[in-house]
Amino acid sequence: MGAGLLLGALALSAALAVAAFVDQAGGRSLMDHAHDVYAGHGASPSAGVVYGLVYTVAALGVLLWLGTLAGARAGRRWAVWAAVVVTVVMAGLAVTLLAASEYGEQVYPPFWGILALLSPLVGALAVVPLAMRRARQD
């Protein structure tokens, strides 16, 4: 069960990247929001920076969850601690997307922070079965 939840967390991190790609290729709502934030201050946001941060959060999530998943599937005792650390790191990054502001306005709409927060929420759920499995091994 823990490995399945880790797989879900991995998929949600990948979904963040897919959502950013779809937005960048089509609607560009993220860039529209960024332009609205910066336009009144004579600044022009870079799509590379705005989308790049979202892609970085997603890629880091995929890599960290993949390593944790590999450890859990191999029955490694450290997998539960890795899940805790990755959950905290990814939650911190999600909160950064939620709280990032300039000129007194949020740089990212809440949707992006909430979407990024789904992965660590599922990761936190994975900690319980991983810890229970570890306790049975002891």
Produce a short descriptive summary.
This protein is mainly alpha-helical and about 140 residues long. About 80% of the residues lie in helices and about 5% in strands.
Give the helix tally: 5
Could you give the order of strands across the largest sheet? 1-2
Mean pLDDT: 93
Radius of gyration, whole Å = 17 Å
Strand content: under 5%
Residue windows where pLDDT falls under 50 for at least 5 positions? none
Question: Can you give the helix content as a percent range?
Answer: over 70%
- The dominant shape is elongated
Order of helices and strands: HHHHEEH
For the sheet with most strands, the description reads:
2 strands, antiparallel
Quickly count the domains: 1
Number of strands: 2
- What is the terminal-to-terminal distance? 19 Å
Structural class estimated from helices and strands:
mainly alpha
Task: List strands and helices in order, with pairings.
Layout: H1 2-25, H2 29-39, H3 47-73, H4 79-99, E1 101-102, E2 105-106, H5 110-137
Antiparallel strand pairs: 1-2
Helix pairs in contact: 1-3, 1-5, 3-4, 3-5, 4-5
Structure write-up:
This protein has helices at residues 2-25, 29-39, 47-73, 79-99, 110-137, and strands at 101-102, 105-106. 80% of the residues lie in helices and 3% in strands. It has five helices and two strands; from the N terminus they run ααααββα. A hairpin with a 2-residue loop joins strand 1 and strand 2. With 138 residues, it is mainly alpha-helical. The protein has one domain. It is elongated, with a radius of gyration of 17 Å. Strands 1-2 form a two-stranded antiparallel sheet.
